[in-house]
């Protein structure tokens, strides 16, 4: 059994990490922003709370430089899985994304270095956003790998909300690697980052409403609500994906089970997807919703032509982790089933 600190425990990816950690018999301290969210987690795992294997801690604002100073003092922590960071385009000022992402990441690393001497590894949830270069997303001669970095600069964050989001993930991840490489910071732990693209999959955590769904899954809510009935929208230039349960498994393998993962960026993806394929899977598996879903005649949403999309190679990650990725059909079906529980 390993004692793990999991930040952002009510988040989309973290909720699956928590479920898998507890199923494997590990002890977890998880942070959330409010007592309301903490209560929902405790209600889901009463036996783990009673045994002391699940403890919740309130960190109301991860953008505060001292946000994690107290929780990292929990005795005998061995691994930190840092998932807490915003992924949404609903902001008026890019600082609303940049500050929580960058300060939240550096503050937990600083707190661990200062007050958690038993921690041997920190895994940070990064993103394909920190890998992709917007100038090459439609370039078939360009291959993105674990070694690729988004070249975005601070001057570009006002270009578009998606640019600001990608910048937040890039700056946060760079800050993390810079921190552990600087001897002056006294890090006695190593670092791993997990860099998924679009993350689909079932929702297991409490949701106030379908309007608060994670950004990647929003498209399936739109499909179920009839918004794709007349035309299936383009998925945009980033047409690779992964199931949330596989992302969770990657965090656990990297953090707790594979020593050789230390110092690595892990580019986890199951491959290509299109919104048209999502629609076809929904139509095939949920005929009772035929009146809301796109028909076979509905146009749009197909994969960009091969000469209009980037290439990718995540073979290093796959060799290291040995994950058998879930299929797109399994992921979409399980996602829609979970969304229906919330009234989709």
Spans with pLDDT under 50 lasting ≥5 residues?
none
CATH superfamily of the domain at 3-201 and 242-268: NAD(P)-binding Rossmann-like Domain
Task: Name the shape in a single word.
Answer: globular
Biggest β-sheet description: 7 strands, parallel
Order of helices and strands: EHEHHEEHEEHEEHEHEEHEHH
Structural class: alpha/beta
Radius of gyration: 20 Å
Spatial gap, N to C terminus: 38 Å
The spatial strand order of the largest sheet comes to 3-2-1-4-5-7-10
Fraction in helix: 25-40%
Mean pLDDT across the residues is: 93
Tally of helical segments: 10
- How many strand elements? 12
Report strand %: 5-15%
CATH topology of the domain at 3-201 and 242-268: Rossmann fold
Assigned CATH architecture of the domain at 3-201 and 242-268? 3-Layer(aba) Sandwich
Main CATH class of the domain at 3-201 and 242-268: Alpha Beta
Protein architecture, described:
The protein has 344 residues and is an alpha/beta fold. The protein has a domain at 3-201 and 242-268: Rossmann fold. It is 35% helix and 13% strand. The chain is built from ten helices and twelve strands. It has a seven-stranded parallel sheet, sandwiched between helices. Strands 8-9-11 form a three-stranded mixed sheet. Helix 1 packs across helix 7 (244-257) and helix 8 (275-285) packs across helix 10. The longest helix has 21 residues, at 95-115. The relative contact order is 0.14. The model has no long low-confidence stretch (mean pLDDT 93). InterPro entries: Epimerase_deHydtase (IPR001509), NAD(P)-bd_dom_sf (IPR036291), NAD(P)_dehydrat-like (IPR050425). This is NAD-dependent epimerase/dehydratase domain-containing protein. Belongs to the NAD(P)-dependent epimerase/dehydratase family. Dihydroflavonol-4-reductase subfamily.
């Amino acid at each position: 059994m390993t004692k793990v600190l999991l930040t952002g425990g009510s988040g989309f990816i973290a909720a699956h990490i928590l479920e898998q950690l507890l199923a494997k018999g590990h002890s977890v301290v998880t942070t959330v922003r409010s007592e309301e969210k903490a209560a929902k987690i405790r209600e889901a795992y009463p036996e783990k709370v009673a045994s002391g294997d699940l403890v919740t801690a309130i960190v109301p604002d991860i953008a505060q430089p001292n946000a994690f100073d107290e929780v990292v003092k929990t005795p005998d922590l061995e691994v930190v899985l840092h998932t807490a960071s915003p992924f949404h385009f609903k902001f008026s000022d890019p600082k609303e994304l940049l500050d929580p992402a960058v300060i939240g990441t550096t503050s937990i690393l600083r707190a661990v270095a200062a007050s958690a001497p038993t921690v041997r590894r920190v895994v940070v949830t990064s993103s394909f956003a920190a890998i992709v270069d917007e100038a090459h997303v439609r370039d078939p001669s360009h291959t993105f790998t674990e070694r690729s970095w988004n070249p975005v600069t601070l001057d570009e964050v006002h270009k578009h909300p998606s640019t600001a989001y990608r910048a937040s993930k890039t700056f946060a991840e760079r800050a993390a690697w810079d921190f552990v490489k600087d001897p002056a910071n006294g890090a006695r732990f190593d670092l791993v980052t997990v860099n998924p693209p679009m993350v689909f999959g079932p929702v297991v955590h409490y949701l106030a409403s379908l309007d608060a769904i994670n950004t990647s899954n929003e498209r399936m809510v739109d499909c179920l609500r009839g918004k794709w009935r007349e035309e299936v929208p383009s998925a945009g230039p980033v047409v690779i994906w992964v199931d949330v349960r596989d992302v969770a498994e990657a965090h656990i393998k990297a953090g707790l089970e594979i020593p050789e993962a230390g110092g690595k960026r892990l580019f986890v993806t199951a491959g290509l997807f299109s919104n048209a394929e999502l629609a076809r899977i929904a139509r095939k598996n949920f005929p009772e919703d035929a009146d809301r879903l796109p028909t076979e005649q509905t146009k749009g949403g197909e994969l960009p032509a091969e000469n209009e999309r980037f290439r990718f190679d995540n073979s290093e990650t796959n060799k290291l982790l040995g994950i058998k990725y879930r299929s797109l059909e399994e992921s979409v079906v399980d996602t829609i089933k979970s969304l229906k529980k919330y009234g989709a």
